[in-house]
Amino acid sequence: MTAIMLEPVGPGEDDHQPLVKRLGWFFVIAFVSMLVVAAVAYALRAALFIH
User: Distances in Å between the alpha carbon of 20 and those of 13, 25, 40, 50?
Assistant: First the structure.
């Protein structure tokens, strides 16, 4: 098995995406997570016959 060595990254050397793009991904992931939780909650409610 080969060990993978990562090179250290100094300040200013990292290649970050623009803030708008990162915030966009954050909100997309948060919204999809909310939909998944709601779907599971309603599925459990239906499966347990809770009115």
Answer: 20, 9, 30, 42
